[in-house]
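Before any further analysis, backbone shapes were mapped to integers, which produced the following:

***
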Amino acid sequence: MSSHLPIRDTIREDLTAAMEHDPAATSRWVVLLTSAGLHAIWLHRVAHRWWMRPGWRWPARLLAYGSRSLTGIEIHPGAHIGRRFFIDHGMGVVIGETSIIGDDVMLFHGVTLGGTSGKRIKRHPTLGDKVMVGAGAKILGDIHVGSNVKVGANSVVVKDVPTGAVATGIPAQYRFPQLEAGGPSEEDLLYADPAIFI
């Protein structure tokens, strides 16, 4: 899942994703210099490469610690994160060691991808491609969140969520938006449903 593109291409992709997902992003230079979410993912990508090298886990942990201090975003260097990942606002995001995140995923502030076991096993979630996780949501345990899923703000997800679903509530329940030919788009339906953002 983790990208092994040349670092320049990875930075360009992540920056483009930020520009596409953040309506407040009006300048690539401003986003490049001031986006804590981008800085956190770039530092993570370096830390993860170090983590995968024999004997480099201590430096990886130290870099992750420095990143958390700088950005307010905690990403364990063992987490596998795909391409074009974006964290909007970012403060308080926590991504655990055995998390696996697909491509084109977006998280808002306060999201936790957490574990539910104290054992050294796969204990954090797996997110498919094109997943959006709203502010304050918690996704806990070794569960699978399918591609094209939307998780509502402050939801607590403790069971698998199928591809294309919308998950909201505590504990989260899922449903599928009803798209009709000539009707509102999926994005319009999501914005019309306050449960996604509250």
User: Anything to note?
Assistant: The domain at 7-196 is CATH 2.160.10.10 (UDP N-Acetylglucosamine Acyltransferase; domain 1). The chain has a mean pLDDT of 88. The two ends are 30 Å apart (CA to CA). The longest strand covers residues 86-88.
